[in-house]
Amino acid sequence: MLSELYIVNLAVIQEANIPFSGQFNVFTGETGAGKSILINGINAVLGQRTSKDIVRSGCDKAVVTAMFRQLFPATKKKLDEYGIDYSDDELTITREIFADGGSTARINSKPANISVIRDIGETLVNIHGQHDNQMLLSPEKHLYILDGYAELESEIDAYRAEFKQLQELSRTIKALKLNEKDRAERIELLKQKIEDIAELEIEEDEDIAVEEEYKIAKNSVDIHNALSQAIDLINGNESDAGIVEQVGSASDRIGEYTELLSELNPITERLNNVKLELDDICSEIIKINDKAEIDPQRYEYLLERRQKLFEIKKKYGPNLSDVLNVYNSSVKELEALADSTGNIQKLLDEREKLLKDVSQKADKLSEKRKKAAEKLAHQVQEELKFLDMPNVRLEVAFTEGKLTAVGMDTVEFLISANIGEPPKPINKIASGGELSRIMLALKNVIAEKDEVPTLIFDEIDTGVSGRAAQKIGIKLAQISKIRQVICVTHLSQLAVMADNHLLIEKTLRDNRTFTNVKKLSFDERKHEIARILCGESITETALKNAEEMLNSKNNFAF
Q1: Whole-number Å distance between alpha carbons of 328 and 352
Q2: Where are the alpha helices (DSSP H) in 236-339?
Q3: Residue 239, Cβ density class (10 Å: 0-12 exposed, 13-18 middle, ≥19 buried)
Q4: Residue 331 contacts by C-beta under 8 Å, 6 or more apart in sequence?
Q5: How many other CB atoms are found less than 10 A from the CB of residue 374?
Q6: What is the C-alpha separation between 551 and 3, in angstroms, rounded?
Q7: Which of 187, 197, 361, 440 sits in a 20 to 30 Å window from 409, CA-based?
Q8: C-alpha dist (Å) from residue 51 to 17, 226, 264
Q9: Rounded distance, CA 516 to CA 250, Å?
Q10: CA 149 to mean position of chain CA atoms
């Protein structure tokens, strides 16, 4: 779970240390106080894309650090894959975003790639925001939701691998059927590709290894050049006298008059000491420089190899793996084209067999999706009954089409908002409040299957109020018994259900905006709930009502 978040110079937040409980955490505050900034901060520390605009004005960088404890098995598995130690069952991730547009990241104080943090972050936190509601409004996303619920990822991967083979085989057959002129041109193009790539004798991930060695070598060259210049300045060279020689000359010149001016004696002695010290310093630098010197030929090789790999990736990439794939597929296609007459029928037979296998896999996927869809619809409807939408009926509509990379199904969620009405697409009839509750119902059903320990809900209360809002609060509290829940809200009905209430407040000092995050005591929660209920003019009645709401949460069974 996320146990602590530390933020420095993120937009209007100068510094904030935010503690989280393992169950239900809620953020409240006035509009514009900076609640969305917290979500941006968490997104940043999870490896998501950031902008330099979130760095506080006048600062060099923003820093966000998140500490996670009681790691789930899925996270530990990822950490093992990347060789990251978690011996204390803790994980600390830090992201620095610089005002010039760059960023760095660390895991347990060690540098890490953003892609690694993003991969690990997906096992730590699931953020529900307005974009998730947009997923409901986009039918093309519904299949992704259903497949996640049905846990079909491994089967889809196996299907996709065969489908890709089918596509490549079809392209090969099409190429073989080109007329002779086109075939000859295709052969020349393939030969050029093969020659371009083969002459480099590329190894897998070689570009990464070369880049790392190049950076080390480049720094070594710079260090060697700097030390060599320092040696020349101190000892001199063929064209210029060094500092040692100049100090010696100065001492000799002054020494000619020490008998006339006795006070010059200590000065000459000091100059001689300086000369000895410079000689000693220069000797040390020479020793260090001898160690820092690298093989110039190796550096030139790295420089040249780096450029060649860059050029080949630009031509056939973008990644080196893509280049190797181009080489392998070109070799296969060229072999097929070389003897197209005998190969076409053989490849057609092979494609027919592969098409049958792919179609069977698509059929099995479709069967499992339909079974899962019935169960999903039933579970979501039960959740919606609790969320004051008892008459809503969810259906999953299937349309069978041609084979694609995800099977042959097109899926769309349909809802009937009232008894007797036929189901219609969600984007045609669902209001903002209904979307929020449908998405919450889906999240709750899916949460039982995934292994993500922390769920963050940003504006889950959009378009709801009254009893419906209370039911959302109860549902989030229920979810928090099996997963950590963090919620940004502007409704009192949600806020009172939390175990940990955090206030985001904005202040103005010296014509600058500052946002603070504060953990509230019970008495402070009363005042905040009362503010949400009636605004800034808080009355005794509002305070009493707020206290009753806070105490009444204990009456709900979770």
Answers
A1: 23
A2: 243-255, 264-292, 296-316, 320-338
A3: exposed
A4: 194
A5: 12
A6: 26
A7: 440
A8: 22, 36, 64
A9: 63
A10: 23
Q: Phi and psi dihedrals of 261, rounded to 5?
A: -125, 95
Q: Where are the beta strands (DSSP E) in 159-284?
A: none
Bridge partners (DSSP) of residue 513 are: 508
CA 54/CA 42 separation, integer angstroms: 13
DSSP track, 483-533: SEEEEE-S-HHHHTT-SEEEEEEEEEETTEEEEEEEE--HHHHHHHHHHHH
Q: Which of 252, 248, 300 is nearest to 273 (CA)?
A: 248
Distance CA(57)–CA(370), nearest Å, equals 53
Nearest Cα residue to 135 out of 443, 373, 483? 443
Q: Are 208 and 309 in contact (CB under 8 A)?
A: no
Cα 372 from Cα 142, distance rounded (Å): 13
User: Quick check: 194 and 204 in contact, CB under 8 A?
Assistant: no
User: CA 71, CA 64: separation in Å to the nearest integer?
Assistant: 20
Question: Looking at residue 151, what is its pLDDT?
Answer: 87
CA atoms within 13 A on the CB side of 25: 24
Beta bridge partners of 87: none
Q: pLDDT digits over 353-392, tens only?
A: 999 999 999 999 999 999 999 999 998 888 888 888 888 8
SS3 203: coil
Q: Which residues contact 23 (CB under 8 A, 6 or more apart)?
A: 477, 480, 481, 484, 485, 499, 500
Give the number of other Cβ atoms within 10 Å of residue 484's Cβ. Answer: 23
Tell me the β-bridge partners of 537.
none
**pLDDT tens digits for 26-77?**
998 877 656 778 888 898 999 888 888 889 888 999 999 999 999 988 899 8
pLDDT tens digit sequence for 212-228: 888 877 787 778 788 88
Q: Which residues of 99-116 are buried (b: 16+ CB within 10 A; e: fewer)?
A: beeebebebbeeebebeb
Q: What are the CB-based long-range contacts (under 8 Å, 24+) for 273-278?
A: 274/247, 275/244, 275/247, 275/248, 275/251, 278/234, 278/243, 278/244, 278/247
- What is the 8-class DSSP label of residue 103? E
